[in-house]
Amino acid sequence: MSAGGGGGGAHEAIPQNKLIAFGVIGGLVGIYAAYFLVDIIGPSMSFLGALGAICSIVWGASAVRRVANYGLGTGVPSIGMLALGIGVIATTFGLAVGGIAGPLVALVFASLIGLVVGMLGNKVLNMGIPIMVQSTTEIAAAGALTIVGLSTSMIGTFMFFDEIVNGVVVAQGVASGVMTTGYIAVIFIAGGLAILHPYNANLGPDEKQDRTLACAFEKGAIAMILAGIVATITPFASGSITILIGIAIWYVSFSGYYKRVKRDAFMVTGSGLLPSKEELE
Amino acid sequence: MEPLTGMGVMALIGAAATIAGASEDLESDVGSQSNPNSQVQLAPQMMYPHRIFNKAISGEPPSNALICAIGGTIASVLISSGASAVLALTIGAILAATVHGTYSVTSYLGRSASQKRFKQPIYLDIVRSHVPVMMGYAFITTFCILVVAYLMTTVLEHPFSLPLLAFIWGITVGAIGSSTGDVHYGAEREFQNVEFGSGLNAANSGNIVRKAESGLRNGIDNSWFCAKFGGPATGIAFGMTVFLSGWITVVFDASQSDALGWASIIAGAIIVLLLIIWNRNIEVAARNAYGPYKQDEEAEVAA
Amino acid sequence: MIDIVGIIAEDFLNILLITLGGMLIALGVHLVPVGGAPAAMAQATGVGTGTVQLAAGAGLTGLVTAGFMMNVTESMALIIASGTIGAMIMISVTMIVGQWMYVYGVGCPPASAKVKYDPITKDRQDLYVSQGTEGHGIPTASFISGVIGAGLGGLGGSLIYYSLLSIENGLPEANFIGIASIFAIGLFFVNAVIPSYNIGGTIEGFHDPKFKKFPKAVLASFVATFLAAIMGVVAIGGM
């Protein structure tokens, strides 16, 4: 891929700790709110899961931004694929054993594997990136919450198993509703790219944190819309509201992104020649 | 399944895969994606601002996996709600191409804006002219891969679901596209200003060709060039991968007996062996035809 | 509640096989000749893409063929062999078409900059490296190394997939093919990224000095995969 960052820490207007809190709390609140409110109010509340996922996507994108700024030597995408790989493993495990605590178990175990891989990277593979351990942990955890959030939004619950009463399936679980049907693939890659793409798309010496995060919101909204499309055919989740809110978030965040692009760019022009020699001096 | 039906389906799958491979590569040439894009990204820093699209969507395999998984998911949703397969695959591919458009736009705007200090402008006419072309190619790629995945799940009874198979073939087509066709773009088209017949000298890094046959060069000019060799060759590569890996299991049907299953493994091994020999032939022919770049100093001293 | 200890004890063999699969993938990635971004400009020997991407492309192709074979036969050896062959076909087709690009499109002969003589064909390499580059194209040693590497990747991936599907949980296989396959993909990515950190960009194959670093990555992948394997076995075994 393209050249990494120039090394050293990335300048940040919003401190990473705030974004961690935003991602973890926002993600978990969204997921649990979706779970309980779908039971209490009805399937229309399933969109909250995707909102939670957007919070963790923004957090993950910010963590990618910090670590990729050091230049990993293998391009930005690899760390995201690593994180999503860990995320999908931890999610399967967490939801299967955790029951109602599933998202928490997934979060903890994703952080655990992320921590181990990050330490292996620094200690065994001698990568020597100071924030490697913390960032791998963060990205893996964000990946797991994104997967849980989008799954919840697709089928209205994060329970792993089908709920069966007298031999009749009364509620579909993640195992049969998201994994067997293969929709996990789109969660995996749409969530993963939403975490990876923002920094990768804004790579360069004049990258700005707020512009990158605006892009993360926008890509998160696309993942939300996709979750909504799947939700249209599942009985315990409502697709239309998820899609509409997703489109609204997309519009707002894309406008915000474009505004920041115009603010940061050297020149935004309809068409024209290349800058002249004098201008380049 | 009738062996003859199997063969027919394999032929169709191979043809669809070939088209998908070719359009995938041309899409990445229009947008300048993946590894050759590192030179487009570097150029403004070396005082060479340009009018070439700068599309960085996290590497070609994930970006193609994204559009294929989106297409597969939407198609699968539509099929399960009763739509016909053709309609479902088409709508899936259209929406996937739309998402691809948003990813392309954000990366061009974002990467160019992050090069403010090198005075790289953002040209909106580049966005307007290139994004529809990329979306068109992305549509063709997605649709063809969905055809491959759909035929594999329904006719060949592959146990993976449609979205998952589409995802896997998306990763593979991206990996093949960035390994084969992109070399034609990165090593030749971007550096037509240096003599043909050698790799890029590190001293020329970033000095990409910025002027076209008419006007300033852009990504669409690049796809015109790569369509002559890089694109079709990528198509052959992906078509061969999908066709050969499926063909051996269709001809030697392991569901009849394990012995036939082993025959398919042997057939695959023979194919790999033939490719190794072919590669060696190309290597020898190239060494003889082009000759060494420098004289053997040791031999001269000895003489 | 799931009897976690019981499942781990019962399926310990599967956990070991999955871990072995992960280690095989990590080893295999070291053998695949990748030149990263420089190779796309014919500036480095190997295939012009990233380590993770190419390994994933080959390994997942192997997973598709193994999944197909698993559907029609019970024989473990056959399933794993078919995954291996699928990955080998993908990588050899990719490398040979890549070679067309270097030879016919760019006009340079394949050459390695890391060794003076190709360890397999004994051809002189250094004279064929064009000025200012670290080699280009895919010489025979790299080609064969890549075939073996992708084969190991496909072997590891299908071993993981097979082990996950042979867990006894009282359900028909069709009910957890989806979980097993996405889990195998997840593990594949983890085990493809770990060695790529070890390689750090480019490697030419088994003759590259960097190849000697592989035990580190295999060790790292052993630890990571073992943890993940326990989770996967518990998740599927408890269904």
Structure report:
The complex is a heterotrimer of chains A (281), B (303) and C (239). By secondary structure, chain A is mainly alpha-helical. Chain A has one domain (16-165, 182-268). Helix content of chain A is 69%, strand content 3%. The longest helix of chain A has 26 residues, at 239-264. Chain B has 303 residues and is mainly α. Chain B has one domain. Chain C is mostly helical and 239 residues long. Chain C has one domain. Chain C has helices at 4-10, 12-31, 36-40, 51-72, 76-106, 140-165, 177-199, 214-237; strands at residues 111-112, 135-136. Chain C has a two-stranded antiparallel sheet. At the B-C interface, α3, α6, α7, α9 and α10 of B face α3, α4, α5, β2 and α6 of C. Chain B: Its main location: membrane. Chain B: Part of a complex that catalyzes the formation of methyl-coenzyme M and tetrahydromethanopterin from coenzyme M and methyl-tetrahydromethanopterin. This is an energy-conserving, sodium-ion translocating step. Chain B: Belongs to the MtrE family.
Fold blueprint:
The complex is a heterotrimer of chains A (281), B (303) and C (239).
Chain A: H1 16-40, H2 47-68, H3 77-98, H4 102-124, H5 132-155, E1 163-165, E2 168-171, H6 174-180, H7 184-201, H8 209-231, H9 239-264, E3 268-269, H10 277-280
Antiparallel strand pairs in A: 1-2
Chain B: H1 3-31, H2 37-42, H3 60-80, H4 85-113, E1 122-123, H5 124-154, H6 162-179, H7 181-188, H8 219-226, H9 230-251, H10 258-290, H11 297-302
Chain C: H1 4-10, H2 12-31, H3 36-40, H4 51-72, H5 76-106, E1 111-112, E2 135-136, H6 140-165, H7 177-199, H8 214-237
Antiparallel strand pairs in C: 1-2
Helix pairs in contact in C: 2-6, 2-7, 2-8, 4-5, 4-6, 4-7, 5-6, 6-7, 7-8
Question: What can be said about this structure in brief?
Answer:
Chain C: Its EC number is 7.2.1.4. Chain A has helices at about 15-40, 45-70, 75-100, 100-125, 130-155, 175-180, 185-200, 210-230, 240-265, 275-280; strands spanning about 165, 170, 270.
For the record, the count of structural domains of chain B works out to 1
Strand content of chain B: under 5%
Strand order of the largest sheet of chain C: 1-2
Summarize the main sheet of chain C: 2 strands, antiparallel
Which structural category fits the helices and strands of chain C? mainly alpha
Helix/strand order of chain C:
HHHHHEEHHH
Order of helices and strands of chain B: HHHHEHHHHHHH
Largest interface: B-C, 87 and 81 residues
What is the strand content of chain C?
under 5%
